[in-house]
Amino acid sequence: xxxxxxxxxxxxxxxxxxxxxxxxxxxxxxxxxxxxxxxxxxxxxxxxxxxxxxxxxxxxxxxxxxxxxxxxxxxxxxxxxxxxxxxxxxxxxxxxxxxxxxxxxxxxxxxxxxxxxxxxxxxxx
Length: 125
Known about the structure:
34% of the residues lie in helices and 30% in strands. The chain has helices at 4-9, 43-55, 82-90, 92-105, and strands at residues 28-37, 60-67, 72-79, 106-116.
């Protein structure tokens, strides 16, 4: 029997399945953070800390993130509801990281929040 991992290994590119968030059946919520990073100093440690901290918050479902060599990145975090998103946005340590991001790391960013009503994947699980 083919598993998801074996099916993906049959392809020419092997994907890290950990890069895909394991979300529940909809509905759930997403926060899409698109940014352009201008500075890297201290960013990696803060990013890891924020992912660790977010994963401990009530309502957190997962995260997916990618960044190009041009500095443009997209991080998508998944949440149970809007209240969980609001609590995360207001978390003191997260607010401090947001301020540092505006001051040091980002030349521009945009945040979008949306409710996921429907999803599907390939290959089907």
